[in-house]
């Protein structure tokens, strides 16, 4: 029997960052909204929306119970603001590693299988990569005991360089370490010198990057920003991108992450889901029911 890859649609909490930041939604409500409003039963959290609750077992138990009551599966937690895993300063890097331990524990409690980390740091590309190999390697050792994966996202700067990120993961060389390809983060350098602000003046080819990363992918982030009146994503050719993922025989989670302004967050999530459904039919890439 020939193996036919298929994927499952998950929903990234960042899709509702405006509502969450304004207080119109809270983290406890997110998985219920995912299921009831969008019929998506796999969710991806962002730690900043429950930053002070990582060790609060009462809170986590309530979140988990809401998921169980609504048939929602927890997939991953995206971790930001806990220090640079690629810091070339040993003490800072060790502190960052230790700061992530509580999120590994929280992920395990919630039934997640993965946490997403960043590989930022200051210094030369070679020095930051070597530091990140050490930092992520240490975290992976801790996470392996809990059965948790560590995945690195292309999240600006060096991490958005396809060759650099691939080399990093190969150097770490651990089964529970992989990549989270994000369709929208391929700016290597901005005129401001900052990671996220300023005009992008150097960008890596996203299709080339995703193709080389897929053997190490433990999830995919289907980013959309501008969706036109025909339902197509203007900044990413979804047919081309999803075919790359299908051709890699990827069978896992593809997470919707809407980050645009032209549609409301609810409209953007619905439009992205429809886009994934349309493209999957066109290229013969089954969505697991």
Going by CATH, the homologous superfamily would be Divalent-metal-dependent TIM barrel enzymes
Output the CATH class name.
Alpha Beta
Which sheet architecture does the biggest sheet show? 9 strands, parallel
Amount of beta strand: 15-25%
Structural class of the helices, strands and pairings? alpha/beta
Second CATH tier, the architecture = Alpha-Beta Barrel
Distance between the termini: 20 Å
The overall pLDDT average reads: 96
Question: What would you say about this model in short?
Answer:
This protein is an alpha/beta fold and 289 residues long.
Can you tag this structure with a few keywords?
nine-stranded parallel sheet, 289 residues, two-stranded antiparallel ribbon, globular, alpha/beta, TIM Barrel, 41% helix
Plain-language structure description:
With 289 residues, the protein is of the alpha/beta class. It has one domain (6-287): TIM Barrel. Helices cover 41% and strands 18% of the residues. Strands 1, 2, 3, 4, 5, 6, 9, 10 and 11 form a 9-stranded parallel beta sheet that branches. Helix 4 (90-110) runs parallel beside helix 5, helix 5 packs across helix 6 (162-172) and helix 6 runs parallel beside helix 7. The longest helix is centred in the middle third of the chain and has 22 residues, at 125-146. It is globular and about 50 Å long. The two termini are 20 Å apart. The relative contact order is 0.14.
């Amino acid at each position: 029997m020939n193996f036919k890859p298929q994927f499952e649609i998950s929903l990234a909490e960042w899709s509702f960052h405006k509502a969450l930041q304004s207080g119109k939604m809270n983290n406890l409500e997110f998985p219920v909204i995912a299921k009831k409003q969008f019929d998506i039963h796999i969710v991806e959290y962002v730690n900043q929306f429950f930053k002070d609750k990582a060790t609060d077992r009462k809170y986590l138990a309530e979140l988990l119970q809401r998921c169980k009551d609504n048939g929602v599966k927890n997939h991953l937690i995206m971790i930001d603001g806990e220090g640079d895993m690629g810091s070339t300063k040993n003490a800072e890097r060790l502190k960052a590693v230790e700061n992530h331990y509580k999120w590994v524990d929280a992920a395990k409690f919630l039934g997640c299988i993965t946490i997403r980390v960043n590989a930022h740091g200051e210094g030369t590309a070679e020095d930051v990569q070597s530091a990140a190999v050490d930092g992520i390697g240490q975290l992976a050792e801790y996470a392996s005991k809990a059965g948790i994966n560590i995945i690195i996202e292309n999240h600006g700067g060096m991490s958005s360089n396809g060759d650099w990120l691939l080399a990093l993961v190969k150097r770490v060389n651990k089964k529970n370490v992989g990549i989270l390809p994000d369709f929208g983060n391929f700016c290597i350098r901005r005129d401001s010198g900052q990671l996220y602000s300023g005009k992008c003046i150097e960008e890596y080819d996203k299709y080339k990057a995703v193709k080389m990363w897929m053997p190490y992918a433990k999830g995919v982030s289907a980013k959309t920003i501008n969706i036109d009146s025909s339902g197509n994503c203007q900044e990413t050719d979804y047919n081309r991108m999803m075919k790359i993922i299908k051709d890699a025989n990827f069978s896992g989670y593809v997470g919707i992450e809407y980050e645009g302004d032209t549609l409301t967050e609810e409209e953007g999530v619905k439009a992205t889901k429809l886009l994934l459904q349309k493209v999957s039919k066109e290229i013969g890439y089954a969505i697991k029911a």
